[in-house]
Description:
Elements: H1 8-17, H2 22-36, H3 45-60, E1 64-65, H4 67-72, H5 81-93, E2 97-102, E3 105-110
Antiparallel strand pairs: 1-3, 2-3
Helix pairs in contact: 1-2, 3-5
Amino acid sequence: MANTTITRAQALQFAIDNIDNDEVKNVLGKMLAQVTKPRKAAVSKARKVNEILAFKVTELAGAEVTTKDVVALGIPEVTTTQKAAAVLRVACELGYFEKVTEGKKVAYKKVVAE
């Protein structure tokens, strides 16, 4: 027998297709509906905080910044270059900055609204 993975939804569908008891089919059908129900896209707390911080950085920063520059801005929540990188990544996704790489140097240029 080959090592193939089967999902819970596939297993439930197989059971529904191959069982003769209508009562059991009904219960399995409800289980299948619950397993295949689409999830809501949730935004994490950290993402929400980083979006707020990205806006603050946009207001305080110059035309081009590095992670060290963001730490030097003195925002209490951004004390490490790792946190600054996370905030700047979100800022890029929101369209506030664009990432510019020159060799090993990574900088972020502010996007000017046209």
